[in-house]
Design goal:
alpha+beta, Porin, twelve-stranded antiparallel sheet
Length: about 290
């Protein structure tokens, strides 16, 4: 049997099982360390909502992460068909594990139409061909990581990321809270709008929260408790997630143990195809006394 690639495994995760009208079941990878990756839940919930809509495309969703997902058991997605209007459709999705709500999402769908257009210009950054793959480059910094983190970091990735600035997670110098990262799926993705949007939703949660740590010279490896609290996304134009896209990220504010982050996703030719906003927990853990 041929081994599945990392992106094929993600596509399998996003192919939900329908178990009843408006009810779907999603699985998690067997090798997740402690909790379900937030991007996985975003993608699966968007698939669940999209499968109850015909002839319209998601233009935005707003989601809240309520509890950590358990990777050892399936996630149940219940879709509420809130409204089917003349040109817009609204859906609400609740994700359940152990009898409790772990996540919810409101998503809006629209019949495709033309209208006035404008956008911010894409930042001027180096071409992805001139940059290095973050995952491969950071393997050299894994020596001081715990063994389970090393094993997870060594796995193939479904999304290739090439940051314009590649800094050392283990010894990061403070810098302005702006980050530009080229990204693409590491293999072919079906040319289906539901699949394309759900894979991009999955990828959008991979680096955004880290932007709020940049001015503090910290990373997820530096005694910080991090977790996504909410996530909103708007889709402006069609795209292909297996082509290079620039994820331009910034963090206007950090306060109250939370980091506020924004992202703009551009195609390689400069078209703004999606926008993202996320707030996440970035709580400094207290150092334990050695006495």
């Amino acid at each position: 049997m041929t081994k599945r690639t990392a992106i094929e495994e993600v596509l399998d995760l996003l192919d939900l099982e329908k178990i009843e009208e408006n009810i779907f079941r999603g699985q998690s990878p067997e090798d997740r360390m402690q909790r379900v990756f937030g991007g996985q839940v975003l993608g699966q919930a968007l698939v669940a909502a999209s499968r109850t809509v015909e002839g319209r495309v998601c233009h935005s969703f707003h989601a809240y992460f309520l509890r950590a997902g358990d990777p050892k058991i399936p996630i149940l997605y219940e879709v509420d068909r809130a409204r089917d209007g003349g040109s817009f459709t609204s859906r609400r999705v609740i994700a359940i594990q152990h009898g409790k709500q772990i996540f919810n999402m409101s998503a809006s769908f629209q019949a495709i139409e033309k209208g006035l257009e404008h956008q911010f210009e894409m930042p001027k950054v180096p071409d992805p061909a001139s940059l290095v793959d973050e995952h491969e480059a950071r393997k050299k910094w894994m020596e001081n990581m715990p063994e389970d983190a090393k094993a997870w970091m060594s796995k193939p990735r479904p999304i290739e990321m090439r940051p314009v600035i590649l800094d050392n997670w283990m010894n990061r110098a403070p810098r302005e809270p702006f980050d530009n990262v080229w990204m693409r799926a590491t293999g072919p993705v079906p040319d289906d709008v539901i699949v394309q949007q759900s894979v991009l939703a999955y990828a959008s949660d991979m680096s955004l929260l880290d932007t709020a740590l940049l001015p503090h010279g910290r990373s997820w490896q530096s005694n910080i408790q991090m977790a996504s609290l909410d996530h909103a996304m708007w889709f402006h134009h069609p795209f292909k997630v297996d082509d290079w896209m620039l994820y331009a990220q910034d963090s206007p504010s950090g306060s109250g143990g939370r980091g506020f982050n924004r992202g703009a996703i551009y195609t390689r030719d400069g078209k703004l195809v999606a926008s993202v906003v996320q707030e996440g927990l970035m709580r400094v853990r207290e150092e334990k006394s050695k006495n």
